Amino acid sequence: MKVLKFGGTSVGSIENIKRVKEIITGGAKKIVVLSAMSGTTNSLVEISELIKNNSINEALINIESLGEKYRLVLDELIKEPSLKQNTLNYINTVFDFLKTCTSKKHSELLYNKIVSQGELLSTYIFTKYLVQEGVNVRLLPALDFMRIDKANDPDDFYIQQNLQRIINETLPADIYITQGFICLNAFGKIANLQRGGSDYTATIIGAVVKAEEVEIWTDIDGMHNNDPRFVENTHAISNLSFDEAAELAYFGAKILHPQTVMPAREANIPVRLKNTMNPESSGTLISKGFKGEGIKAIAAKDNITAIKIKSARMLLAHGFLKKVFEIFEKHETAIDMITTSEVAVSLTIDDNKNLNSIVDELEKFSIVEVDNRQSIICLVGHLVVRHHETHRLFRVLQDISVRMISYGGSNNNISLLVDTSDKIKALKLLNSYVFDFEIA
């Protein structure tokens, strides 16, 4: 069995939905994980914010507008009268529910219920379309088996027991459809795996069912060696190790959710990144093995804050670093990069939620400087720190002001911290220095 995940753009139009149907039909049994149609989650988040801000009339207008979009999709996609009426009834039920949300007090639970509707809509409509096309298909509601624990990690035992039970109790099918992103929390309330979490859903399921392979289908031919939005002449990478892919995902490669690799790596299940618009392309295979050494890819992560913490005494005075790290741990704020000197430590975070409280506590025993609008540029490859050509990347220091460098903490990753205003220039220069392409 394979697990295939299709993102929002893959089910974002009638043409693409029909293309997905062609991709998944035939061959071995499959579990297909769907995201919400492109733009839907953003619209639902906006509706939630309007309710939170008590802009009820505007929320109702947005609900009606989104509902009309789905009714137009239905008109084009499903022609069989009984299936069409059944699907219309479901769509109306969803949007009637959203309207009732406008009269409720906003909460995290209400937000989760609102944003979950996108995946519920896409899977229901797609399943009915496949039925119309004569496909032997069953819908497996993710809320019946997908759960996270109190630490917000997948509850593997619960998922395995309930998913297998549901499959056994459901009539046999060639294709099982389920929702990405949404789940229950440890208390049985609707929650989610955060934005981009449909990838994570797919590898969690893949690990549970011991899939032959997990395929992540998007609108690009696999993981590129640089960000094609900013750099010309990029190309898809044919093979990555789990470690390389995890580094790239965490440090900004948008094609893959950062947590996606973990379940697949633990279960040793290959993950293949494919393009729905170009299914013939081989894409990128992520697996246990690795091919080649040196820098394979470059990614950038924005919205980084750099914090310099200067001690009034020697940095290595007993307990200084311990006190610093305890403050970040207390405020549940992860550190991305860190460098030290004799009297100071510089580090970066990507979550400013508790920044003011962190700074207040640090200033009790140190001098603190904060720089916002920073970007981490990550260069990834197997044993990259030992490769004889890695030195070429440091030519960028001639042209870009680099705030921090992380070298040696990982054999597969070298990270540079730059001002976000220099990010695109740095990506282009590094592309030229490392891959011998001309600067765009």
* Fourth-tier CATH superfamily name of the largest domain: Acetylglutamate kinase-like
Helix percentage range: 25-40%
| Quaternary organization | single chain
Alpha-beta classification: alpha/beta
How many domains? The number is 2
Mean pLDDT: 91
Q: Rg to the nearest angstrom?
A: 24 Å
Strand order of the main beta sheet, please? 3-4-2-1-7-9-10-8
Instruction: Please give the CATH class of the largest domain.
Output: Alpha Beta
| CATH architecture assignment name of the largest domain | 3-Layer(aba) Sandwich
Query: Main sheet, how many strands, which sense, barrel?
Result: 8 strands, mixed
What is the molecular shape? globular
Helix-strand pattern: EHEHHHHEHEEEHEEHHEEEHEEHEEEH
Q: What proportion strand?
A: 15-25%
N-end to C-end Cα span: 43 Å
Explain what the structure shows:
By secondary structure, this protein is α/β, with parallel strands linked by helices. 38% of the residues lie in helices and 22% in strands. It has two domains: 2-219, Carbamate kinase; 297-435, VC0802-like (2-Layer Sandwich), CATH 3.30.2130. Strand 5 (182-184) and strand 6 (190-192) form a beta hairpin. Helix 2 (40-52) runs antiparallel to helix 5 and helix 4 runs antiparallel to helix 5 (108-132). The longest helix has 25 residues, at 108-132. It is globular and about 75 Å long. The two termini are 43 Å apart.
